[in-house]
């Protein structure tokens, strides 16, 4: 991937291997630091130095020198560090991020950075990040911009998620989403990710709790939905969750049982509550499609079979990719479509090839969630602009 820096005088292109250049003023503050990521973590201490991005030098930049990097990601990944481009609000140790100093020290033309990922594996150039503007050679048409709704990650409001031409109903009222180049796949709530994976034939982990909820409570949940019971109260009314005034939450009862006493059959795990909440959403959507009760329960059982591992991968048959439906996300006033060949990752060649679903489960509870992460699977298809000056994010078809 190239780093392009539109400066006040000229525009140049530089390899990312020179992201940091040690200069004589290097210093250590002695203050320890620790960061936990979705997969893996780092710990170390804060230091300061001049940091070089191509031929630009950011003066007196604080950063973390990692002395410990547990996790498979850091063992397998081919990179030397992480250049965080989020907002200062989530900066560890309240350190001013390098992006802020690029702007503050007047090193770039505009307070904007943008990403292009090259999805042609046969080409040597993996992509491009432009600090200070956008490269018109790498997108088509105009960007659709949406405002940043919460500073921390680059978070914005996203609308409905569609499989083929049908709404999943999950984000019809809006969902929070972030664009993140540090996430390989598209991550979303287990409820809708399971439905997507079922539609594309991806095989995940069979959830016995999900199937048990359908078997024991399916008819009851359907009856309550048909009688116009408030959906957020249904799982608490059937005894699988408790109601906190806005939505159902796990009961979370911790029981102390003597050696001669049996466990109460009335206590249910957090998984049963979560499975019930998912079933309510799925059944709601099927009722809108005027499906029969029998077909609804059969369909929900199929979804249970497709439940993916949390933050895990689900595989598909490579031969069936061409027949899979598209998956689309509504952002601003436009629908952003992903075709199967765009959301399926093919690893290896010939008979040894494996095809991986580009969708993985991540459940972020309210009030911050539900939260979607539009990672590289999405950003590889849509050129992404992070407009710091106007606090907005923009997407356009990549070229």
Task: Explain the overall architecture.
The chain has 9 helices and 25 strands. The protein is an alpha+beta fold. The chain folds into 3 domains: 3-107, Cathepsin D, subunit A, domain 1 (Beta Barrel), CATH 2.40.70; 134-202 and 311-395, Acid Proteases (Cathepsin D, subunit A, domain 1); 208-253 and 264-304, no CATH class. A 7-stranded mixed sheet has the order 2-1-7-6-24-25-8. α3 packs across α6, α4 packs across α6 (270-288) and α5 (231-237) packs across α6. It is globular and about 65 Å long.
Write the layout of secondary structure elements.
Layout: E1 2-6, E2 11-15, E3 27-36, E4 41-53, E5 56-68, H1 72-76, H2 98-104, E6 112-117, E7 127-131, E8 144-147, E9 150-151, E10 154-158, E11 161-163, E12 166-167, E13 175-179, E14 186-188, H3 190-200, H4 208-226, H5 231-237, E15 241-243, E16 248-250, H6 270-288, H7 293-305, E17 315-316, E18 327-331, E19 334-338, H8 340-343, E20 344-347, E21 354-357, E22 359-361, E23 371-374, H9 376-379, E24 382-387, E25 392-397
Parallel strand pairs: 1-7, 13-23, 14-22
Antiparallel strand pairs: 1-2, 3-4, 4-5, 6-7, 6-24, 8-25, 9-10, 10-13, 11-12, 11-18, 14-23, 15-16, 17-21, 18-19, 20-21, 24-25
